[in-house]
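tmp note - Flavin reductase
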Amino acid sequence: MNSMVENMNIQALDPKAFRRALGNFATGVTIMTAQNAQGERVGVTANSFNSVSLDPALILWSIDKNSSSYRIFSEATHFAVNILSAAQIDLSNKFARRAEDKFAGIEYEIGAGSSPILKNCSAVFECEKFNIVEGGDHWIIIGKVVKFHDYGRSPLLYHQGAYSAVLPHPSLNSKASTEESVFPGRLYNNMYYLLTQAVRAYQNDYQPKQLTSGFRTSEARLLLVLESKTATSKSDLQREVAMPIHEIEQATEILAQKGLLLDTGHSYELTAQGNECAHMLYKIAESHQEEVFAQYAPEDRELFKKMLKDLIGI
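out:
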């Protein structure tokens, strides 16, 4: 009797409800790419990626048996796992749709076994095809990692059918102790010490939020400065951004590759898409600012800003 009840429960399993339940498990977003001996390229967006073994280094992902892309993955000797950064939603959508050539207009390099390697990802794993296992209505493709690239960008997440981003858990931001501290008078009356400690404390909570945009600090800072038009030339830019020149050069190169920035020769200008990204970053900054200074009256905030501007010389 119990066996019959169990069989009835299995048969009554609602695929849509099952998928919604699976959606509670937040995952990263990847684009799997490969190229066969005939030069046919393939790329699909997938969130079924997972690690299998450290020794040997094995990973897996799965693809629908009805997918037209499977043939090339089965023929190719290698494939690449491109883990998307939080700034690559458009790329994820592009490779999730059916298209004759998903790589049109996309910059990529050639990796192991001729697999296309996408740029500006969080990480990339170049894999030799290790095995393909049948798993219900999907093929489970197992790869042996032969090379990997760790870029450290904040990853794109997928949860309950929507894109999301990484933020530290609120409990991690709680103060270590609420007990009254004994402050050494001279040090805690030193303005320089207070200012540097205040900047550090502000950044500790703000930077993780900024990183959810998919832009590194150097890239975000450039976007904000260029949108504000406070730097009209490349020489002014280093002063406003306050970063080493090699960091600026690397960041401008990445932003240009993404189509967010144009080099006019004597200066940099944001494209329409670049301005949209800058506005998004400003919203993140303004939201954090409101959160930090919510306890202060508007006139106190304005006085604080005036004091900071006076110190800067604005």
